[in-house]
Amino acid sequence: QAQLEESGGGLVQPGGSLRLSCAPSRPTFSFSTMAWYRQAPGKQRELVATITTDGESNYVDPAKGRFTISRDNAKRAVYLQMNNLRPEDTAVYYCNAIGSISGRHYWGQGTQVTVNS
Questions:
Q1: Is 62 helix (H, G, I), strand (E, B) or coil?
Q2: Is-contact 50 35, C-beta < 8 A?
Q3: Cα end-to-end distance, the chain, whole Å
Q4: CA atoms of 76 and 91, how far apart (whole Å)
């Protein structure tokens, strides 16, 4: 069973940047689509961006032009570069990965991103 660990969250001022990382805590099998989700206080978890094994990415509208998702297949890792952050980006960010063979979804424990002056 894969265990994913996120890092890179923190407190940043509006307009600032953060880079989130997510990788397995130990060697594991390959993943197909990987993604980032977020959950703001009092709201449901929502999709932010996805990326396929071939590097094709998709973003929800609030993330377009500001966030960039990338991955390193050899490391089984996924990243989220977030620029021009806004207070409404404040949330716990979760990485998600789908097992290439099982199709099972794996989640990280979440990392807090707070955008506040």
A1: helix
A2: yes
A3: 40
A4: 24
